[in-house]
Specification:
The longest helix has 25 residues, at 63-87. 27% of the residues are buried. The model has no long low-confidence stretch (mean pLDDT 90). Strands 3, 4, 5, 6, 11, 12 and 13 form a seven-stranded mixed β-sheet that branches. The chain is an alpha/beta fold. The chain has helices at 3-7, 10-19, 22-29, 33-47, 63-87, 103-120, 174-180, 186-189, 230-238, 248-257, 286-298, and strands at 52-54, 59-61, 95-101, 124-130, 144-148, 158-172, 195-197, 207-210, 216-219, 225-227, 244-247, 261-263, 269-279. The chain has eleven helices and 13 strands.
């Protein structure tokens, strides 16, 4: 079966599902009810499945029809987006651009890049959300998302670009070290107070300990302070309230200024992977393509 054959009847099927009847769909498509009904019937015959339950009073999707409807909606949406891209191919980035990024990484690294991008393209209207919740790109109509962590394999409908992995290091303030001493071994490290990251469910993120064997141990411990915000965690460590294991992207400036110092570098380890994500097809839009190129250059942590 060629690709053209695969597309036949899809629009008629989707419009019928949305309208709730062949008659209403026919009015929208400017066709006869019989023509729409036959088009859907041919589609069902080609697929070998029944898409609608038909009674004299109502038309409803079967389970298979509902699943197929979701896919067809996406296909038609992407075709519409592709047509829009062709129409605006020679235009500069313009219009609304929906972005989503982790709260702390977004504010520290994504937001400056977005501001520079907005200055470069004055007709662009960025709409940005910073949250540690994994939003659904399709449901929330997100053009580009930055993700820390996530599945090993992304859905086929999602484009992705690997930005690198976090590098996690143990750190403390000079004041803490002057007061409590420098830990020279893992055993020493575990005697110090800890500043931990708290999760929404009330648990805390464990320390990841790299061993000479190459294994990484997840060590849970009590914290003197638990806080569900990376920047607040940094401030607590700077205040001398304990040791934390933090990503280097989070404390780069503090290390450069000497406000924090790294401890036991042999225990440093990789953390979560960072990715750029976007709905497949949207990278063809000038606004999305341009910002993706900027992010690929400026947000890399490899």
């Amino acid at each position: 079966m060629n690709q053209t054959e695969r597309l036949k009847g899809i629009e008629h099927f989707v419009v019928t599902a949305d309208a709730g009847s062949f008659t209403a769909a026919a009015d929208q498509l400017h066709l006869t009810s019989s023509a729409v009904s036959k088009s859907v019937a041919r589609l069902e015959s080609r697929l070998g499945i029944r898409l609608f339950e038909r009674t004299t009073r109502r038309l409803s999707l079967t389970d298979a029809g509902a699943a197929f409807y979701t896919t067809c909606q996406r296909v038609l949406r992407e075709l519409k987006e592709a047509e829009s891209v062709l129409a605006s191919h020679h235009h500069e980035p313009t219009g609304r651009l929906r972005l989503d990024a982790p709260a702390t990484f977004g504010r520290l690294h994504v937001w400056p890049a977005v501001l520079a991008f907005a200055k470069q393209y004055p007709h662009l209207r960025p709409q940005v959300s910073f949250t540690d919740r994994f939003s659904d790109l399709h449901d929330d109509n997100i053009d580009i998302a930055v993700r820390i962590g996530g599945p090993e394999q992304w859905p086929e409908s999602i484009g992705h670009h690997y930005l690198g992995k976090e590098r996690l290091v143990f750190c403390a303030s000079p004041h803490h070290i002057a007061t409590h001493g420098t830990p020279n071994t893992l055993a020493d490290l575990l005697t110090h107070d800890a500043v931990l990251y708290g999760k929404a469910d009330g648990s805390t993120s464990p320390w990841l300990l790299a061993h000479s064997t190459g294994n990484v141990e997840r060590r849970f411990r009590e914290g003197r302070i638990v806080v569900a915000n990376g920047e607040a965690q940094v401030e607590a460590v700077k205040a001398g309230l304990g040791i934390a294991q933090l990503a280097t992207w989070l404390i780069k400036d503090e290390l450069a200024r000497g406000e924090l110092v790294t401890l036991l570098p042999e225990l440093a380890t990789d953390g979560l992977a960072l990715h750029l994500l976007w709905p497949i097809g949207r990278q063809l839009q000038p606004k999305v393509h341009a910002l993706l190129c900027m992010f690929m250059n400026e947000l890399s942590v490899a």
